[in-house]
Structures are given as C-alpha cells and as structure tokens.
Amino acid sequence: MKRLSYVIATMAVMMTTTVAVSSCSSHDDGPQTTAELIIDAVRGEYPDNAQTRTLSDDGTIAFTWTSNDKAFVYTNGWGTKLGELAPMDGKTGTSKTKLDGIVSSNGVSVGDQLMLISPREEWNYTGQDGTLASISTKYDYSTASAQVLYIDAENNNKIYATDAHFSPEQAIVKFVLKNSSGTADLPVPSLTIIAGSGKLVTKCSLNGTATEYGNIVITPADGNPTNTFYVAIRNDNSGADSYTLTVSTAGTVYTYSKSDVTFTKGKFKTITVNMKDLNDTYTDRTGYDNEGNETWE
After folding, report:
1. CA-to-CA distance for 84 and 73, rounded, in angstroms?
2. CB under 8 Å to 248, separation ≥6 — which residues?
3. Omega of the bond prior to 87 within 30 degrees of 0, cis?
4. Which of 141, 147, 143, 150 is nearest to 163 (CA)?
5. Phi/psi at 285 (nearest 5 deg)?
6. How much is the pTM?
7. What is the mean pLDDT of each run of 10 residues along the chain (297 residues)?
8. Is the torsion defined by CA of 103, 74, 230, 171 positive or negative?
9. Alpha helices for 89-240 (secondary structure H)
10. Which of 124, 131, 126 is nearest to 230 (CA)?
11. Of the residues 83, 143, 259, 268, which has the maximum number of CB atoms within 10 A of its CB?
C-alpha cells in the first residue's frame, strides 16, 4: 500500500490521520469507494506510565503495538464498518504506531467521527485462559475516535483527521491463589469470579446497546492447574462491588469474598488471595463477621 508522507514540524504538534482516497475507476470523476487510511495512534496506559504489554520485574503491565494487532474502523456511532487497519512495518514495539489499511470511503465528510476498536470486533470476555498472552490478543480491548478535519479533493484526494488515542475498556487483574494460611500456593484447574451486583460484563455490542452479564470462568488452555490467573475484568456497576472467587481442587471447594472493591478501566492490580475452605465459618471465608466487622489484616 502506498504510504503518504507528511512533515511533523514539532513533536508537540498533534499528529494527524491521513486518508488517501482511491477509485474503482481510472478516471478522475469515477466513483470513489475505497481509501488508504494511515492513522497515528497512541495507546493509553495501564499502570504508572508503563507502555509495554509485558510483565515487568515490578509487576506492572502496559502496552506495545505488535505486527499482529488490528484496529477496526467505524462511522455513524459504530453503525457502519469502514474496514480494518494494522501497524505499518517498522512501527511496532512501542505504545505509538502508524495504522494502515484500505477502508471504504463512501459518504465520508468533514466533521465525521471515526470510531476505532482493537484488538477484535467481537467484544467478549468469556473463554479466558488466565494468561497475559491471551488477554493481549483477545481481551485487551481499547477504543478511540478521530474526527475528519479536511478533505483535499484537488491533491490526491486526501482526507485529514485528528490522531487516535486508544483507551483501555477493562482492568487487568493478576490473582495469585494461596492456601488459607498463605503459606503455600494453591494450584487449581479453573477459577470462577462472581460480582455481587451482577454487572460483570461477559459480552457487549460495540455501541453499548446490548450487554450480557454473568460470571467469568477462567480455565488454563493447557489443562494444567495453576495458582496464577491474569483476568480482564469489566464491571458496569456504578460504584464499588463485592467479588467472590471460587475454585475446586482435590475434592475440596475453596472460596473467598471481598466487598467494596473497584477495578478501574486501564488499571492493573496484583492480588494475593488466601482461599478458604467452603466448610469454614463465614468469618474465616470473608474476613468479616456477621455484623460486618473486619477481623483480618
């Protein structure tokens, strides 16, 4: 695909999105139906200015664009799909990239909002396997918008728009499971997460008009028990929520409940959980007595 070149006068100047419009016909007055879209994209942070989608020594998670990433472009409030983009060669490995692809140019006008989502169109949090690699390719959803600023019909039919700042749509939580005393790891074949509000998102439409809620079940893809689960969590509750984690291993069911928890979009947390035998007392399993008094440190 042909790349457009343009000069950036200073790093402080906002980068623009460029669309080079092509035609189905070789004639200048032919119908213009496709466009090469090149967009400067910046991916938002998870924690503490971290900007690599890897696990670092201090336990932070962030984002880098890879050659396998995709971004899907829509207009009309997610109503019309224009096409999909991918990072240009040599424009990966950091939180900034140039996305490139052929999209539909039908009806594109100055002032239009371009809506983008990555890494896939199917907004679905089910089927997680507890690994960071899986979250990276399937569940680390981020969205952005860009506004068409100018259409240059005389010079190569270019369309200019603002750059795209992608924002994460979920939190990423690393759960480390221990036995009740916290003295040993607790490897389990799967983990179930329940939100007290019932607002834990499992699936949603791009325009937000249809959302499904339920429990999140995380099962390692290799079938091997583990005590460490990375989970993408989106909760539509208006405030803090209560969460219950449940596992079963070696014929024993373990659980743990915690109230007043907030998982913020774009944030990463590591939580060590001392799981409790389901047969233990309410106080032991939750850290609260029946009057709601905190009894653990």
Report:
1. 6
2. 188, 189, 190, 254
3. no
4. 147
5. -80, -20
6. 0.80
7. 34 42 40 74 61 42 82 92 91 86 85 94 96 90 90 70 90 91 94 97 90 97 96 95 94 92 88 85 54 40
8. positive
9. 132-134
10. 131
11. 268
